Amino acid sequence: MCAAPLAALVVPAVTWPLGQGDALLLAQLPATLATAGASAVLAAALGCVTGFAAPARWSPALLLPLALPPAVYGAAWLVTAQQLGWGPGAGLTFVTLLPGQVALAHAGATAAFAGAAPLADAARDLGAGAAARARWLWWPLAWPVGAALALVAFAQAVGDAGASAFTSGPGGSTLAVGLEILGRGADLGAVPRWALGLGLVPLLAAALAALLRRR
């Protein structure tokens, strides 16, 4: 089901000639990957910490970014940043993407660590100290979960064109926003190619995350 819409992009992605749109999107790729990657790693770390240690009453606040429409969330961040004298750009996009990524990571970590507390209690009762529990229990549990959550958060950030449309600046400074601008304009040659690439990112991330969770 997920791959069916992507299949329609394959032929035009391969056969349509390269053009100016490809060059414009290629120029936005490094900043997009850097912003999405940095925010994903931080979000995965925060998600693991809050998923294990944060009280349950914090969850509604942590998950709130998932309930807000991306356009509303991006507009709110843009207005707030302008009042603080902070203009659109990679930094504002990073800050805007991070809460939503943390929300995803928190939800995933909470589910993944749901059965870990009894194991920690048992290890403590058997005499394992904090360092031993961290090395032999928490690290083997946390690193595959954290890596999987980082992949999911990265895929979400790379494909975001809702909130990022407000924070990335004129002309679009992220790949997804630039792709949307090209799709609405006259230069459609690059759209199938880059849309296919963006569509494959979450599929590959989900596959890698599943492999990591099996370790």
Automatic annotation (TrEMBL):
Keywords carried by this UniProt record: Membrane, Transmembrane, Transmembrane helix
Membrane topology: Multi-pass membrane protein
Broad class of the protein's primary localization: membrane
Subcellular location: Membrane
Transmembrane segments: 31-54, 61-80, 92-115, 136-158, 194-212
Gene Ontology, cellular component aspect: membrane
Record's protein name: ABC transmembrane type-1 domain-containing protein
